[in-house]
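Box 3.1 — From sequence to structure: histidine kinase
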Amino acid sequence: MKSLRKIITRSILLTAIIALLLVFINMVFTFNWLIKYSGDQTHKYSISDISDGLINTNGVYSLNGAALKLMTEQYAWAMLINKDGDVIWDQNLPEDIPRHYTITDVASFSRWYLNDYPVSVWTHPDGLLVSGDPKNSIWKYNITSTEDTISHVPGYIIGFFILNVLTALALALFMGLWLFRKLKPIYNGITELPQKKLLQLPVNGVTGEVARILNETSVILNQQDKKLSDRDQARTEWIAGVSHDIRTPLSMVMGYASELEENPHLPPAEQDQVRIIRQQSQRIKSLISDLNLASKLEYKAQPIELVKTSPAALVRNVAVDYLNNGLDDPYTLSVEVSEAANDPILHCDKALIHRALTNLIDNSLRHNPSGCTIQLSAGKSIDGWVIKVRDNGQGYPPELLNNLDTSSEPLLLGNHGLGLLIVRRIMKIHGGKAIFENIPTGGCIASLLFMQSHA
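Predicted structure (token representation):
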């Protein structure tokens, strides 16, 4: 919801800025137009210069050069009316303009129109100079106002500006609230999609098309999720069923193989063959157990029993199991723990961590047939605690480390992969992580990192 509020707030501010910008632009445009208009008027109606240039020479009137130029550029016609009301001089005078006027006639056209011609008047030593423009070329209207009204004009302008600002802000707020009401259902629907809820958003209004697409998307996602869940459930049940079906005949094979291996009447060569059968059967049993455990860890079906224990105790117990069962001569196993690792400070499932360490040691034994030195260690790390399994064997294949770096679990199912996959999943449910790397001088090291919050 915070993201939606942020979007709406920014929309309101943007709308307000745009509205205020439009008000400012309109005011600048109006001010500029008024300046230009008033400037044109001053130049346009310089009739006084024409009046000064109208010269009477022995009863004959003529315009001098400057006045004639102004007359030609600015007016269509002109005439001079004497004190008796008669036209005593004219230039380009239209046929429908009278040649005689009374005082009343002069008063009626002096500021407005003469026979629909816009006119301007100016006093001349010999009468009244009248200049005219073509019909429908100039709009003239008389505006009068009291001194009190003129004195309040600045206040009116300021009030008008404030009213425009308030209107712009109110419009922005209204648009923001309207947008909020329209987008809120869409936002809620998007946030509910990851929760795999079936959406039923209203499909009317401006957001109706988006709401319809979200509704259809939620249906598709729910159908896909159900299919994936059914597939995963079927796979889990299949793995459990196959594991159960294989255990019984496999146990019989291992039992008979053990009896034959201990039979003194069998030749040594046949006893070696039987021992290989027993060992490989044991390996198949371990693989089935690993596969079943990996499936349970993936779907969180494995029961977790968290207790406080010491990292040193975990490491020593694993080492004791291997030493008691006997290690072949090419292999050696050592333990190194810090003093602090003896305290019960690790919150974990002891059986699963024991399984993770066992997988790592078995990995070293299996992939170094000519022998290696294995070292278990436990101590403090920067973020918590770390348990390490290190050997000086041939190390991890480069392609395996690349797959581990990409965190793509299906790619791990190779020669080393299933055991390391289980280790990584065990650490994941403990809130930690497993890091696998090769040592430049030879061998490899697997680090089980437990975060401080789990210590």
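Summary of the box: Residues 95 and 115 are 11 Å apart (CA to CA).
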